[in-house]
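Quick question, first post here. What does this chain look like in 3D?
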Amino acid sequence: MASRLRTGFQLTLAALVLTTLGCGSWKVVPLATNPGDNAASLAAKRVAPGDTVRVVLKNGQQSEFTIRSVEDGAFVGQDGQRVAFADVARLERRSTSTAKTTLLVLSPLIVFGGAFLVALIAFAASGF
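> Answer (accepted):
Ran it through. Tokens below.
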């Protein structure tokens, strides 16, 4: 009986961990706010080392990487990949919603906790 409960708990925990991996979304980083602005350099001010970004280059190539540094004229990825600001057509930053992640984690715990409590009360009421 205890091993089944442990296995059920482990499966529930694994399911929660796997679902929280998807709690992020891609947000478009505006490249320009005014017609005369240098679009990509403005975008560089909106991302920071450690951010995961997805870029679409003007030639159509796409790339996803974590920013190690933002240098003069280029984003530099953790793997050393350099993407020149001038080559960027679209920039997106991965963001995680703390509220949505918390809700996603807590709601199954509340549901399973409530179900466990009901089962425990029913078990106690049955006279065992």
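The domain at 18-121 is CATH 2.30.30 (SH3 type barrels.).
The chain has one domain: 18-121.
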